[in-house]
Amino acid sequence: MKFLLVFDFDHTIIDENSDTWIVKCAPERKLPNGLRNSYQPGHWTEYMGRVFVYLGDNGVKEDEMKRTMTTIPFTAGMIDLLGFIGENKEWFDCIIVSDSNTVFIDWILKAADFHKVFDEVFTNPAAFSSTGYLTVEHFHAHHCEKCPKNLCKRKVLKEFLDKQLEQGVSYTQIVYIGDGGNDLCPVMFLKKNDIAMPRQGYALEKRISQLAQSVSPVQCSVLVWSSAIDIMSYLKLLIKE
What we know:
The chain is an alpha/beta fold. It has 10 helices and 8 strands. The strands form 2 sheets. Strands 3-2-1-6-7-8 form a 6-stranded parallel beta sheet. A two-stranded antiparallel ribbon has the order 4-5. Helix 5 runs parallel beside helix 10. The radius of gyration is 18 Å and the shape is globular. The mean pLDDT is about 95. Keywords: Hydrolase, Magnesium, Metal-binding.
């Protein structure tokens, strides 16, 4: 009996968007209009690449970025939830699938000492160049028309499950915890016995409830959460059964 917990990161584990939080490092804590307006739908990673160039051009260094990122607040109840999962790892495998980047997630989890809770983190690879600029790349290529160019979370989840199965690991239930529109694709992949946990008032909850009225609603159960304590209560029930 093992359960797989799949977490989004921005607005799920942390209560903010890590990519927009970094703007606090910019001169006057804001981006010039031309840069801000250069975003094109589906091309967020490229946009963030330009933001990182701007920060680098303005002399923003790695240590300042790290200091800023580690002040991001966790979502209500999340510290308790991650502590609980960490104490019950024999029941739970735990992964992050996020459109953030490796550098930000690594900094935030390590600063709070939660990196050991997660077995794997799937996100856009990022690194500092020899000139001290943060660079970010696409996570992978895919053919899904519903997802941003750089990341299809369904593909990530499916490949992870296939790899686990090859090693003889299968899960009693998958619990998917997220908030955004790009979490819908993997939620549609979940089976009847699985559960989607969308954050209350965010895009994923709205998209799932719109689908409920359509010919192809999600197959899995849905449990909405507003505090991570709601998630913890559910997980406690799971391991009692």
